[in-house]
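Q: Structure tokens for this one, please.
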Amino acid sequence: MTSLSIALATEAEAPACLALIPEVRNQPAALLVARRGAALVGAAGLIWKSATKPGGLPLMVQVAPAARRQGVGRALFAAARDLADGESPGLWSIEPLEAESAAAAFADACGFRRARRQRFFEADVEALAGQVEPLAARLRARDRIPRDARVIALAEAPLEEVSWLVSQHFGGGPRQALQRLQGRLAERSISTEDHSKVVLEGDRIAAVLLERMDRGVGVIDAWVVAPGWRGGWPNALLLEAAVKRGRNHGVRTFRFHCDEDVQETLLLAQRCGARELPAKDLYYYALAS
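A: Here is the predicted structure, written as tokens:
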């Protein structure tokens, strides 16, 4: 068998790498390419931003189907680990992995550990509206929503300011957050049509909802509320706006997720009778100090 080589991707190789690992597109990533002879058989993306706690760099590894179970994935992981060693205390899976999946088995084999569980839900749009709309109406009736509060599309918001709030929640710094937000707005496909929204009180950003359409389903990727507004009216306004726009676009269901200890979201899922989807785990690999 032709020997395997792992190297940093050249500029010419980057598009082929990103075709295998689109999750790192628009990210500040080091791209690694695996080749057997002239054939590209795998790629890895190590994103240069610290994600969540404990600190770690997100990593994505993908091997072409015909080259799997031949050590390509482990070789890519080892090269990425060597790149990150001394730069970060650890590595994170770039996205949560479903239990018993091939990706989870690969993470286990490389020495990652299950670090944080996320729970996923799918809710009927009318059931979700039945919880959100009465809450927003009560807040208005009690004059709990400021008169100068409004919801605007992400494309209309000051992205630099939004990026600061997003980076405080997800880490990585405002420049990386800005690149991700710009990437969301630039994508135009059946699974990436952006419907994200921002809540303003006057000219101050109170909250952000990152939402997209995926083949007729509304997908809420995240919502972030600024300090000083948490536990208040911005969440109600964001979800009310999402439900209204969803109805206007023929959406019947919404998908959303949260960490297993986020009681507010879990309670919302319970009250609207959301169907629970398989849970997923984020994996962490601690690098030697």
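A few notes: The chain has two domains: 4-95, 119-280. The two ends are 37 Å apart (CA to CA).
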